[in-house]
Prior knowledge:
Blueprint: H1 2-7, H2 14-22, H3 28-90
Amino acid sequence: MSRRFAGVGVAIPARRLREIAAGAPAADDELTDVGFALAATEFIREQRHASFERTQRRCMQWLIVAGMILVALNLLVCMAYAFFSLTQHSLP
């Protein structure tokens, strides 16, 4: 947890965080730092989650587009086959 806190600019040693979590008295500035670090890490986590969901949605849209292109190409090939088949049967 102290590494995540350091990532948002709050440098509290892991030992001190364990002491605070165990109920040791903490100064107001330490509690403010811990509160800020918790909020900042949660915000960063939500941003990453939202980015992942956007990427996942984009991939799904492109898969749908690719599938529809394949369906359209298959339809064109089937129509061409039917056209050539009909022209072969209508020749004397």
